[in-house]
Amino acid sequence: MTPKKEDYLKIIFELGGKTSKISNKQVAVSLNVAAGSVTEMVNKLAKDGLIIHAPYAGISLTEEGVKVAEALIRRHRIWETFLVEKLGYKLADVHKDAEVLEHTVSEELIDRLEDFLGHPQKCPHGSVIPSKDGVYPEDSHVVLNDLKPGQSAEVEHFIDNHDLLEYLADVKLNIGDQVEILEKLPFEGPLNVKVLNTGEEISIGYKAAHYIFVK
Questions:
Q1: Which helix (H) or strand (E) holds 97?
Q2: Close Cβ partners of 29 (under 8 Å, ≥ 6 residues apart)
Q3: Span 94-112, pLDDT tens digits
Q4: How far apart, in whole angstroms, are the C-alpha atoms of residue 155 and residue 130?
Q5: Nearest CA to 147 among 202, 197, 200, 192?
Q6: Three-class SS string for 166-180?
Q7: Where is the HTH dtxR-type domain (predicted)?
Q8: What are the residues whose beta carbons fall under 8 Å from the beta carbon of 72, sequence distance 6 or more?
């Protein structure tokens, strides 16, 4: 298992690949990689028995793929929580160092770190942290762009992507915000959104709206 393979498994899991099929394009955008690179890696992961890939139908994790992804996600998100809560990292900057740390320490240290943090249920960008025994509530996979004008929801979590998190910090959208869709502009235009808890009206780009999960 190489770090690149691990990155793909984590993002497939984060996008909902445990229970549904996701597209190569979603993976490419989330990891900031070319479509050809995704195709190549998807073929490798399928040969390893970690994913199922049906052309034009999408990607989903196998049972073994889910187990591997859960373990990777747990380590990564525990480190993210530590770096943000105890060392004061900015949310957008935490991923890179968490990526390094998750590969360099023992499982015992991860267990002790989880104890030290008080067994957090969610990471700083709102996603669930799987427990050691694989028991955890499922994240929502409804994205902001799924909502229609007039509908409202709570922001639950964001994809762990540096550019996205920087963008959301700039527009001041946060985990737990209550939002209402005011308008969806045509031809993949932005969404005009009202943040109900602040009264602010903001514009969210079409692409970003596919990586903001709500409930």
A1: helix 94-101
A2: 207, 210, 211
A3: 988 998 898 888 999 999 9
A4: 20
A5: 192
A6: HHHHHHCCCCCCEEE
A7: 1-62
A8: 6, 9, 10, 102
Paired tokens of 117: 């943090």
User: pTM for this structure?
Assistant: 0.89
Contacts of 41 (CB under 8 A, 6+ apart): 4, 5, 8
pLDDT tens digits along 32-56: 899 999 999 999 999 999 999 987 8
Which token pair is 144? 């902001």
Please name every residue paired with 181 in a beta bridge, in sequence order, or none if there are none. Answer: 193
52 vs 49: CA distance, rounded Å: 8
pLDDT for residue 54: 84
Q: So what's the pLDDT on residue 105?
A: 86
Out of 1.10.260.40, 2.60.40.10, 1.10.10.10, 3.40.1710.10, select the CATH number for domain 5-61.
Answer: 1.10.10.10
> Regarding the domain delimited by 144-214, which CATH topology (the fold level of the hierarchy) does it fall under?
SH3 type barrels. (2.30.30)
Return all residues near 95 (Cβ < 8 A) that are at least 6 apart: 80, 160, 161, 162
- Per-domain residue ranges of the chain: 5-61, 144-214
| pLDDT beneath 50: ranges in the chain | none
Q: Give the position of tokens 């040969």.
A: 47
